[in-house]
Amino acid sequence: QVQLVESGGGLVQAGGSLRLSCAASDRTFSRYTIGWFRQAPGKEREFVAAISTGGRETLASDSVRGRFAIHRDDAKNTVNLQMNSLKPPDTAGYYCAARETAYNGRVYLGEKDYDYWGQGTQVTVSS
Predict the structure, then answer these.
(1) Torsion angle of alpha carbons 105, 107, 111, 114, nearest 10°?
(2) Please, which residues bridge with residue 33 across strands?
(3) Is the pLDDT of residue 105 over 90?
(4) Using 50, 70 and 90 to split pLDDT, how confident is the model at 79?
């Protein structure tokens, strides 16, 4: 069972950048598709971005496409979410999630598609 730990959240002004990291404990990390989700107070959790095994496929939601980028480093068991041009609506708790896919190269958008979740890291964007 993989354990996920997010880091890198914080307070930033609008237009600024943050890089979130998701570190995993499993030596077979490369077998997992990794997704990032976020949840703002009073709102449902929403998909942000995902990356397949091998990094061959990535997907980002319409609201962050062109501003956020997802990358993985399997040697370090880490997936990073680079967030640029941040806006106040980006304020939320950010969660990474993992699904073991045995290198199928697919990305997934749904919460229910993922089996393991981290505890989250808070991102606050001030105007």
Answers:
(1) 10
(2) 99
(3) no
(4) very high
